[in-house]
Amino acid sequence: MCERAGLLAELKHGAGCRIDEAAEKLHRLSQDIWSCPELAYDERKAHDRLVAFFSQEEEGWKVDSHFKLDTAFRATWGPGGGDEGDVVSVAFLCEYDALPGIGHACGHNLIAEVGAAAALGLKAAVEKSSKLPVRVQVTVLGTPAEEDGGGKIDMMKEDAFKGLDVVFMAHPSQEDAPYLPCVAEHDVTVKYHGKASHASAYPWEGINALDAAVLCYNNLSVLRQQIKPDWRIHGIIKHGGVKPNIIPAYTELEYYLRTPSRGELPVIKSKAEMCFRSAAMATGCEVEVEFAKNMFVNILRNATLEELYEKNGKDLGMEFTTDEEVLTNGSGSTDFGNVSFAVPGIHPYFYIGSDALNHTEEYTVAAGDEKAQFYTLRTAKALAMTALDVLLRPDLLQRVKDEFTEAKLKEDRLLKDGQTDRTSKNK
Ligand SMILES: NCCCC[C@H](NC(=O)CCCN)C(=O)O
């Protein structure tokens, strides 16, 4: 074995040992987040718990609480790993928001644990070696509001990702996969304003905002038949009136519009908008159409990082899914997509010991189950090992960066040319 390969194996082993050593307190961390689910932008206890973890339970971290957002944080360590060489900045992202009514049904408590664990592992490995070709800075970014709003996008607008060379996070799922297609998404709130009236005595005096909402719902359901099979339109009626004998004067709907790539979003948005407005026209209501402040985009893939992660995962015993349907069908969306256009990174998925599906009560149970711990820490080890691969081989890091630049240029060109085809398959 050449000297570098020997050092790499030793450092990867060291990262794994550190993660195992911290297993109990990492479990406590995710349990505390799991048992107190908090919604987007309101993850106060999770924020405080993570800040305490890095400032009190762990040594050597510089912690910025309320970093850029009230419930975001940043913990940094380094530069370490030697006195010479460029500083390479590696970040691990933690999410920790839950879903209304069903708690941690997307397992973001485990995302927080993976991010914290991987950072501990990488720091320990780097601390032990003065032979690295680069100096290393390890950053943990606590990124709120993935389930609603897109905290990472807010943080990007505030330059929170500036200066990072590579970013990692991992998301709980039903299987291990270095990449699964995430779709672009733009959320919209539609408000209808009508006129109240006694629904039995003088209904002709009213303007029915619920009729507008129902027509809007039906228009969109009809539109769904004419859109591409991998586009998604789904929504709820948030306000549907207050009493059967009052003609509803106000209704509100919330819809998520999704397409495989960011370039297709304007098409679905303009089609949906015709549905919103025609319902208003048919009923005589006024309509307000409010698109969300942040639009989630598809993930810009990085084949080099994906391959390294897969190799490390396999070395740790992961069996990656080969199910073509899972590998090609779009799933949900993530604000990591936006990050992936700013910094090279990966967002692999990991099995948590259960076949339960995300966004169900069963998944909430699975995300809090002790059984998930083995898989969560194994994922953290694979991420730390992947970081070590690129830190020990500057040529690999350069390849990661070149690939990122090329993929981004290609996507930007497609977007500029108005091509609305799937553009994220740059692997
Ligand atoms: N509408 C706000 C964003 C919703 C994001 C949410 N994300 C996930 O479920 C994570 C899946 C990662 N593929 C979604 O509904 O897609």
Automatic annotation (TrEMBL):
It comes from Myripristis murdjan. CDD domains: M20_ACY1L2-like. The keyword Metal-binding does not apply. It comes from the Eukaryota. This is Peptidase M20 domain-containing protein 2. The lineage of its organism: Eukaryota, Metazoa, Chordata, Craniata, Vertebrata. Keywords: Carboxypeptidase, Hydrolase, Protease. It catalyses: N(2)-(4-aminobutanoyl)-L-ornithine + H2O = 4-aminobutanoate + L-ornithine; N(2)-(4-aminobutanoyl)-L-lysine + H2O = 4-aminobutanoate + L-lysine; beta-alanyl-L-lysine + H2O = beta-alanine + L-lysine; beta-alanyl-L-ornithine + H2O = beta-alanine + L-ornithine. Residues 188-273 form the Peptidase M20 dimerisation domain. Catalyzes the peptide bond hydrolysis in dipeptides having basic amino acids lysine, ornithine or arginine at C-terminus. Postulated to function in a metabolite repair mechanism by eliminating alternate dipeptide by-products formed during carnosine synthesis.
